[in-house]
User: What shape does this take?
Amino acid sequence: MIAVFRKIDDAAARVEKGFVVAMFLLLILSTLFNIISRNLFRRSFQNLVEVSPSLVLWLSLMGASLCLKDGGHIKIEIVLRFLSGKWKALANVAVSLFGMGVTALLGIAACVFVSGEMAIFGIRGLISIVFPCFFGLSFFRFFLHLFDLPVDSKGLSKYRS
Assistant: This one.
């Protein structure tokens, strides 16, 4: 079953990477277009200016989700250095469970936030869907990290420093 979850995670990562590239390209092109139109034609497009922070938000959260997939999230390295392999593995389980709890709570709050944004801004409020997407993917990836914790032949966990 975990192998199926890993394939789903890999597919999601491919989609995220494509999405990040597309969002980055859109950010660059929209900003460049607005700069050129403002300097050459004295015409600025306010909608493009307003979309740019949203694109940056999408890029940063999707990038953070991809970082979490590879175990690149923030860890308390100083504590892990002094733990043996077995304790490192237990610490990683605790971190994964804590991460799952936090992202679950924030994911629920994000869904409430999106519904509020939709009520206020209509379809334009849908841009905030990035929050539940991010927290949902993060929860899933913390869950998968629970199964990445075997101790190797040297007694060190996979995520050693």
About this structure: Residues 2-145 form one domain.
